[in-house]
Specification:
CATH class of the largest domain: Alpha Beta
Radius of gyration: 25 Å
Low-confidence stretches: 1-29, 240-267, 394-404
Strand content: 15-25%
Mean pLDDT: 82
Number of strands: 18
Number of helices: 14
Shape: elongated
Amino acid sequence: MTLRTRESTTNATDGATVAGSTSPRSGPAGRFADRADAGRRLAERLLPYAASHPIVLGLPRGGVPIAAQVARALDAPLDIIVVRKLGVPFQPELAMGAIGEDEVRVLNDEVIRLAHVTPHDISRVEAAEREEMRRRVTRFRVHHRRRDLRGRTVLIVDDGLATGSTAIAACEVARALGALHVVVAVPVAPPDAAARLAQHADEFIVLESPSRFNAVGQFYGNFAQVTDHEVLDILDRWTDHEPWSEEQTETAGGPISPSTSTPASASGGIDGDVVIKLDGVSLPGHLAIPADPIGLVLFAHGSGSSRHSSRNTHVASLLREASIGTLLFDLLTGEEEVDRANVFDIELLARRLRGATAWVRSRPECVGLPIGYFGASTGAGAALLAAADLGQETGGSDSDSGSGSAIAAVVSRGGRPDLAGTHLAEVTAPTLLIVGGRDSAVIDINCDAATLIGGVVRVVIIPGASHLFEEDGTLTEVAIEAREWFERHLPMGSP
């Protein structure tokens, strides 16, 4: 294979044709302000490829904002290509290879030899990276099926190349999926990058190839980490027929900023026990609302648990640190819990949750606050069913809810969303499904449910976590994911 290289610097590489050369540049003159700036400049260079109707593949996470700019300029389909670098065990930043979807693996034999890496070392590193890749594929692919690359020209885009191992893996994955012509395009790469890619890519396009190259980030003014949420925001804003609307143009390189409006709230916080009277019974709870809250989250615990659940109280405490109010309450009385049928009566639990929602909305200190749900285990099914019911209301006609306002966001922890059944299609609230990496059966349940949910949905797998998230640090990861989700979506639900 002959690699054709187009770049803005002069580099002599075996088997490569260098086009459009100018003198080498480095330092401030060759820097990019951020990924959006790099993406726009790279898109200009790639405009001639529009005639070949390519598919643009961004390497998550840093390459996706740049790929989005390219796809927008070329009016081309956008997708991601998931690969993971295999780092040398005692020096993880040094790549000894990479893996990709469809079990593709690429190894750098020279690095392995010089670093004295054993086959056992490779297997151990690969096992860990494949777990992370599975998490990413699960998260990114739920609502964004992989595009058909057969017979197509593909543009693989990243924010820069260092060792090139990840780009090589991406090339191999693309070819395994049937790509006819593979082009790698990046804003910056070291002078020998073309030679490294010569046997893997048909063409290589680079804007800057400075002789002094230490790391990709040194050529960006702003090289902030790109999150999974930002990647999914970009993919969510993409459609086959209208890739970018005018109002989204300026946010193509990052997330849409949520509304910053603040609903009416109490001047000071409240924190105390409450009693909610529903269905002729009294349900004890604990209501805590910080000063100037951005919203209120109601917790729906799972079977065998209560408002005193240590897991839910831990999550609630982190939410309150982010100015999010919380209500933890018992969905059933002690007498009702004796009958195990009640514990799994999702209709009953959802009705109680809707009733509690109406109760908090009637309180003066909660008026106007966007409402979110956090459900665990069976409580997640109840939360999704309640959110579906409230989302279908148009004028508050449901007597036990007392409000026509939809739920702003839902988070499930180790949940059973399948218990909401066919109502999942009616869930329009942005939904985050968090599952432990060791909870295989529940992972499958959540992935299947995610394909049925009508609104925006994410699946997050916490590596190494079991169903109850009892491992060190895993529950805190759950709380952080939930807090970021509610911070992101509760303000959007403001009146």
